[in-house]
Amino acid sequence: MPGVPPVFFPGDVLVVMAVEADGVFECQLADANGRPVPSVSDTIFIEELT
User: Domain of life here (predicted)?
Assistant: First the structure.
């Protein structure tokens, strides 16, 4: 959204922690070993992944 700083950047690997009923993904950044980084999380909409 305009004026909101990004949490994730192109090339980041994400771990999907939950999927809402409306298809919204709750994600956390993954570290180099694929483990979630709990302090870096956000909601991702499918339109943002294409």
Answer: Bacteria
